[in-house]
Amino acid sequence: MEIGQDSGARLERAPSLPDEIARMLRDEVNKGTLKPGDRLPTEQQLCRMFGVSRPVVREAISQLKYDGVLESFQGRGVFVREDTGGSSFRIDEPDLNNQKELAHILELLISIEVAATALAAERRSEKDLQTIKAALDAMAKAIDDGESGVDEDVAFHRSIVEATENPFFIALVTFLESRVRNLIRAARASTARFEGLAYKVQQEHEAIYDAIVAADPVAAKDAAERHLRNAAARLELYREEKGSLRPAG
């Protein structure tokens, strides 16, 4: 078994290496190079094949586990699932230059995150509030330091979803997050281009946090929907400026 032997698997650089490696491994499964029940090469071997670090390989494998393509067994390794056909939900990384596909994925993301934010306002604990506030403060610091704040943004929204205490919400949003990471990067890149806009976005985040603190699900829902729809509009502004969308690295 030689993964990517005929397609030049080694990657020099990509906007999102984990997403690209996950796509390439999935292609090997679809082509039959990797068959159900086959053991995946070790992390170290995959690192050498693709020329990337272990964290990148681990994130790619994690994506494929969420997709139901791979499964791991302690002490044995990672294997291609025997029952990959039709038993798992799957979304390929969206084509960010396809306006219809972009609208569909944003519609799904907004619907899920808005509902999760309302639940978080009802169920959050004091520990949840501390975690959400820490992510909010980290975003503010990133803005003051002139950084993109992508990781802090992701952490803020993830901490809200975790406050729902619903494992299915958490699993689904984690899965979607791996698919729309480039959307978040592009939206943040758009924000960074306009003086003062980053602080306006931070105010949107603060409104979400305040509603969750107040245990007001209606206000939390409204604040989350307003923020996410504004983020979608900022993404479209980025598209218009660039002509076609290239995710920020």
The whole-number mean of residue pLDDT values reads 80
Distance between the termini: 32 Å
Number of strands: 2
The description of the largest β-sheet is: 2 strands, antiparallel
Low-pLDDT segments: 10-15, 244-249
Helix- and strand-based class? mainly alpha
Please state roughly what percent of the residues sit in beta strands, choosing from under 5%, 5-15%, 15-25%, 25-35%, 35-45% or over 45%: under 5%
Helix content range: 55-70%
**Outline type:** globular
Kindly report the spatial arrangement of strands forming the biggest sheet.
1-2
Computed over alpha carbons, the radius of gyration is 19 Å
Number of helices: 9
Task: Give a summary of the structure in a few sentences.
The chain is mostly helical and 249 residues long. It is built from nine helices and two strands. The chain has a two-stranded antiparallel sheet with strand order 1-2.
